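Handout, section 3.2

Students often ask what a structure token actually looks like in practice. Rather than define it abstractly, here is a full record for Lysophospholipase, alpha-beta hydrolase superfamily. The first block is the sequence as you would receive it.
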Amino acid sequence: MTTASLPFNSTNVRNYIALNSLRAGLATTARLSPELALAWTEKLFFTPPRHDWPLAEREWLARAEQGTLHTAGMPVPEWDGKPMRSYRWGEARRGKIVVQHGWGGRATQFQAFLPGLLDAGYQVIAIDAPGHGASAGKRASLIHFAQALTRLVRNEGAVDGLIAHSLGGAASIYALASEGLPVGRVALIAPSADVAVWARQVSGMLGLSCELQARLRTRMETRFGLQWDELNAIHRAAELQQPALIVHDRGDKEVAAQAGIGIASAWVGAQLQLTEGLGHRRILKDAAVVDSVLRFMRG
């Protein structure tokens, strides 16, 4: 998760005004009713931006065999039982590969990987996480992502590989470590690592006081029944044994490269590839990155 979690940033005048207005509103609300401010802030943290599909991705939507899975085992009752859109491309002549998008993303963002994977004989399966793409719901979190991935992999029985981006990377590590998912090789692209770091970034953007930040953390941990440290991808990566490739851009402004470096260091035997000038999203379309991941998946 990153500061891009919010439906705006401070890169243009309109968003700058919106952010300042939100900060002022939160500050006023916190003075009048701290509990209301907490509820408002929590809603912001759990509401992902939802984007339409560009033309190139629509072509892959049309080619996919689409289905539905439902959320199961979520810690909050109203989050459970939501329909999630699943996708399947190609035939599993060589095996199956799962792709997992990040915060605010969708399955078809892996369009650059699909031709090579299909040509290599892999069937590619994916899901839009809750609150994303064509899936239902308005709320999402790392737990939503991990549960969605778990449902998808369990539904297949086992998969030969997993490719994940951003928050999808942190959620994949949590699912692999906590659920023991039957996954062969794992490639993570610009993976996030620490919920606490993300929360501090967003809290700073919103101008939250230290007291409100601490109360928000307690509120979230209580809601999920989990300590944030249990979600730390660097800590959980040390529990994993699958062959892994971690790819991260040195100049990533949304998820610092140190997250990927830390995960690669903790994951026994993991390979680390650092890129230059690709940022957080262009890295998903870079031909050299795609080629590296495909070669890694082929073993």
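Discussion prompt for tutorial groups: The mean pLDDT is 88. How would you have guessed this from the sequence alone?
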